[in-house]
Amino acid sequence: MDTLVEASVVTALHTGDAGAVRLYAAACAERTVPLFIGMRAGVPDREADLDLCVESLCGLWYADRPLSDAAERVRALERFPELLPNEEGITDVAGTHAFFGVLVLRYALLANASADVRHALSCGHGALTAMALLDRGLAGGAVFRAEEEALQARSLSGDAAGLWEASVASGRERLRAALGGLPR
Q1: How far apart are CA 39 and CA 176, in angstroms?
Q2: 26-72: pLDDT as tens digits
Q3: pTM for the whole thing?
Q4: N or C of the chain: less Cβ packing under 10 Å?
């Protein structure tokens, strides 16, 4: 599979254990899912979707074991409008951000359930693509993509201390930037 994920991260995922795969996916999701949450907060009839995302993020951080209901969560996500095919496709900036938030969460849950490196790589690839698109929409260069690459490497460094805090802070900053870049 061709991927945007750095070669050193790919190697570390292939040589790591199941916990490392799950931690990597959880961290990628923590940094990307806030885009979905922020773009869909306040949208009628999406409260349960938002709750599912928040609860899933919390559960993903228990990287020592798979979520018992990960498959059910994936099936629920696959019914989200962002992941359902439609004739128009995604035509707005908010929809694009929301799509990538849900897509990354889907792959994170699949990686959590299976500890399959391919799912983790898809998760990381989705996060990097989302950040490249965010950077493209903002004046300031490739700030978020570069940060995502660094945090992906950090998540596999063997030192998970502070990774959750860094991922939460990064997700919030990305959401602020995305909201600031929306057409008014």
Answers
A1: 11
A2: 999 999 999 999 999 999 999 999 999 999 999 999 999 999 999 99
A3: 0.95
A4: C
Q: Helix, strand or coil for residue 178?
A: helix
Listed residue (117, 125, 110, 35) closest to 73, CA to CA? 110
Question: Measured between alpha carbons, how far is 41 from 64 in angstroms, rounded to an integer?
Answer: 31
Q: What is the DSSP string of 72-103?
A: HHHHHHTTSGGGS--SS---SHHHHHHHHHHH
Question: Among the residues of the chain, which ranges form H helices?
Answer: 7-15, 18-40, 47-60, 70-77, 93-114, 117-136, 143-155, 163-180
CATH number of the domain that residue 80 is part of:
1.20.1590.10
Total structural domains in the chain?
1
Domain that holds residue 79: 7-180
